[in-house]
Amino acid sequence: MEETWYFIDSGHCDPAYNMALDETLLHWHSQGKIPPVIRFYGWEPAGLSLGYFQKVKGKIDVDAAHKYGAQLVRRLTGGRAVLHDQELTYSVLVSEKHPNMPKTVKDAYLVISKGLLEGFKQLGLQAEFAIPEGKLQTTDSAVCFEEPSWYELIVEGKKAAGSAQTRQKGVILQHGSIPLEVDNQKLYDMFIYPNEKVKERARRSFGDKAVAINDIAPTTITFDQARIAFKKGFEKGLNIKLETFTLPKEMVAEVDELANSKYRSDKWNFSR
Question: Pfam family example for this protein (predicted)?
Answer without folding.
Answer: LplA-B_cat
